[in-house]
Amino acid sequence: MDKAISKLAGSALDPASYRALFEQIVAKGESYGPPGGGYAADYTKLNLARTRRIEKTFKALPEVQASMAEATDQTWLVITEPWCGDSAQNLPVILALAALAPSIQVRIVLRDTNLEVMDRYLTNGARSIPKLIAFDPLTGNELFFWGPRPLEAHALVMSEKEKPEADRLSKDQLAEKLHRWYNKNAGQATQLELAALVAG
After folding, report:
1. Where are the alpha helices (DSSP H) in 100-187?
2. Range of the domain at 172
3. Which end of the chain is more exposed for a tag (fewer CB within 10 A), N or C?
4. How far is CA 41 from the centre of its chain?
5. Residue 148's closest CA among 91, 74, 76, 71?
């Protein structure tokens, strides 16, 4: 039994509390991001706009709805931050899927104040988010983990980072390319990957 994860989930934010925090950060209009990250207030505001758009336009695929309806009891602990662009694209999908499954409870923790847990779920050595850890609420046993982005989107990012530095897109150019991918995919990859993990 993973007592650390279970304990953290017990004190974590529910989705409504996380959203209230997100709204509060944007309302303050202050820069918010990881230490040395250079994230301006406008970026977090853009992430909230992305989140709202996905909430309005999201459509669950029929096969995904069926898989989620049959989900076993589990808790989804999501490590994330409002400053994260990938989270703005994926967390609304995660929450919409969980809403289709009465047996799934979602709890959210902030990455930058829970690095001891974040560091157990690194991606190629990086603290990339969002990360979803699913576990059995009775035993604490980990069922699966997912993130920080769908496989196709992650391949897009990694292929760029593997290029010689002189040939790479800038950070802003890569972000624009990645968000174009998200907009075109409309959450379908995240849906299908999570539904497959839930189905076992």
Report:
1. 115-118, 151-161, 171-185
2. 3-199
3. C
4. 20
5. 91
Residue 96 vs residues 13, 44, 59, 114, 159: alpha-carbon distances, Å? 17, 21, 9, 25, 30
Contact 130, 139 (CB under 8 A): no
Interatomic CA distance for residues 128 and 88, integer angstroms: 13
Token code pair at residue 164: 């010689």
> For the chain, what is the domain count?
1
pLDDT-derived band at 2, boundaries 50, 70, 90: low
**Judging by DSSP bridges, how do beta strands 74-80 and 104-110 pair with one another?**
parallel
- For 139-151, b/e burial (b = at least 16 CB within 10 A) is ebeebebbbbbbe
| Length in residues, the chain | 200
| Residue whose pair of structure tokens reads 């309806």 in the numeric block | 69
CATH number for 57: 3.40.30.10
- pTM for the model stands at 0.94
DSSP reduced 3-state for 171? helix
d(CA 96, CA 116): 28
Residues 6 or more apart whose CB falls under 8 angstroms from that of 200 comprise none
Condensed to tens digits (0 to 9), the pLDDT of residues 36-81 reads 766 778 889 999 999 999 999 999 999 999 999 999 999 999 999 9
Question: What sign has the CA pseudo-torsion 133, 108, 175, 121?
Answer: negative
Q: Which residues contact 173 (CB under 8 A, 6 or more apart)?
A: none
